[in-house]
Amino acid sequence: MDSKNFIIGVLSTTATILFATLLIIGTRPTPVQASGMTASGGEYVLTVGLDASADEELVYLIDSVARRLVVYRFDTARQEIKISQGIELKDLDKDGGKGKGAQPKRRGGRGRRP
């Protein structure tokens, strides 16, 4: 009977440890992913994203009056928010949003001119 009681005790202890581990792992909060969320207020539009290649979180801010897009990134090493890039949106209007040197696409079928 002693060996049976010992085996029952070991199995009960193992089951208790596994159950406690399952409860601890199951109740941990999951990390929040805010990618793609957008908010606007007045003349500003704010959205967040993730740069998977650099493993960085980015915040995009559009000032519709000044027609400017500013990208901020979070530097995890220094615990700071830094400006990553700024783009003048009015400069894109000059090229029609196609970029410099882009040729417009022609429409129409065979033998017809646009």
Detailed description of the structure:
It is a single chain. This protein has 114 residues and is α+β, with helices and mostly antiparallel strands. The chain has a domain at 38-94. Helices cover 27% and strands 32% of the residues. The chain contains two helices and five strands. The chain has helices spanning 2-26, 89-94; strands at residues 38-41, 44-51, 56-63, 68-75, 80-88. A five-stranded antiparallel sheet has the order 1-2-3-4-5. Strand 2 and strand 3 (56-63) form a beta hairpin. The radius of gyration is 29 Å and the shape is rod-shaped.
Order of strands, widest sheet: 1-2-3-4-5
> What composes the largest sheet?
5 strands, antiparallel
Helicity range: 25-40%
Helix/strand structural class: alpha+beta
Total beta strands: 5
The percent range for strand residues is 25-35%
Integer average pLDDT? 77
State the end-to-end distance: 96 Å
- State the helix count: 2
Order of helices and strands: HEEEEEH
Labels describing this entry:
single chain, 114 residues, alpha+beta
Helices and strands in order, then pairings?
Elements: H1 2-26, E1 38-41, E2 44-51, E3 56-63, E4 68-75, E5 80-88, H2 89-94
Antiparallel strand pairs: 1-2, 2-3, 3-4, 4-5
At a glance:
The protein has 114 residues and is an alpha+beta fold.
